[in-house]
Amino acid sequence: MKLIADSGSTKTIWVLLEHGSLKKTIETAGLNPYFQTKEMIDPVIRNDLAPNMITNFVKEIHFYGAGCSTESKNKMLTDILQMYFRSAQVFIYHDILGAARSLFGTREGIAGILGTGCNSCYYDGKEIYSRVPSLGYLFGDEGAGSYIGKKFIGGYLKKSIPKDLSDAFDQEYKLSFENILDSLYNKPSPNRFLASFSRFIGPRKDHPFLHELLRSSFDDFFREQIMKYDNYDKLPVSFVGSIAFLYKDILLESAGENRINVATILKTPIEGLISFHL
Length: 278
Prior knowledge:
By secondary structure, the chain is α/β, with parallel strands linked by helices. It is built from 13 helices and 10 strands. A 5-stranded mixed sheet has the order 3-2-1-4-5, sandwiched between helices. Strand 4, helix 2 and strand 5 form a beta-alpha-beta unit. It is globular.
């Protein structure tokens, strides 16, 4: 049996493959070793994943995850998984490789992730060449959920968003100034907190203020990420991620204005990864 995982900062999708077919799908919380400690990750594997399968039957685990970019972080995750799947070989990959394999298979292109965070790479059909660091929600993540949420919340706190949006936000969330700052500076996963406001923005994306906020966020992504690659205007550019999928009409609008050839937009890479590993 093979266990394939696609993990973002918000959720992880696990698929169990047996004899060339899909046997089971499980969803757990997101596992990001860059932001989470062993003590935060272990209960998810112990309580939410391992009890749902016969762990000794799993011979390979292929884990694609946000934050899986250093040897020490990957080893921590490998050690946790092997505590519960003792018969399995564990392979940890950065989520951008998962996106590239899912979107292009063995073809050439530029892959982008727009979910809670953002990332991109040039993929030659076998290897990825990431030339533009994402830098996370503090200094980067252009076009991602955390970036969009940061721009919106910043405007809300500075009272620079339209009154109809401010009133609707107050009615739906009832967050004080102190609540927001506490979530940003004192509580875990501030990137998820910021990205969560997409639930408010999504149904209102056609509001002129929000449309412009989204459009400028995607313009920033193309400028800071995609346009840094050679031949970006000649290669196919494809996306995975909830933000890319939810706002694909505005993303395509921005791409057209920036002379970007968008080929595919997927909500998650898991179907493409299943095909790749089969």
